[in-house]
Amino acid sequence: MAARRLFCARFFLFSSSSFPWAPSLRLSCLLLALLYPANGIVSAATAPLKFGINYGQIANNLPPPTQVSGILQSLNVNRVKLYDADPAVLTAFAGTGVEFIVSGGDLATMSDASNARAWVAQNVQPFLPATRITCIIVGNEVLSGGDTAAMQSLLPAMQAVHQALVDLGLDSQVSVSTSQSVNVLASSYPPSSGVFREELAQYMEPLLDFHARVGSPFLINAYPFFAYKASPATVSLPYVLFEPNPGVHDPGTNLTYDNMLYAQIDAVYAAMEAMGHTDVEVRISETGWPSGGDADEVGATVQNAAAYNRNLMKRVAAGQGTPRRPDVPLDVLVFALFNENMKPGQESERNYGLFYPNGTSVYDLGLDDGTSSGTSPTTSGVYSSCKPMISFPVGVVVLLAAFFL
Question: Which domain of life is it from (predicted)?
Answer without folding.
Answer: Eukaryota
